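Supplementary notes for students who missed Thursday's class. We covered one full example, reproduced here. Read the sequence, then the structure, then the short commentary at the end.
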Amino acid sequence: MTSLSKKEFNKDIEKKVDDINGMRKIAKRITLTEFIEQYTYRFDHVSLGAMWYAVNDDMDYSQVSYGGTDPN
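Structure (token representation):
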């Protein structure tokens, strides 16, 4: 590997890290559904869901509505 290709490799890694950090910032601002819709072309649903929940781990789940029938 030449030094030029190492530089290109490092720039590629830095770009990917910057992209992921940008996705983390977006995940804090939008819903899980919006996040999945926005990035489905690059990642699968499971990976996107895992990232979104990792970023939004401080959510209060006591008032979450899942739809369907009310068990009460």
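Commentary. The chain has a mean pLDDT of 83. The two ends are 65 Å apart (CA to CA). If anything here is unclear, bring it to office hours.
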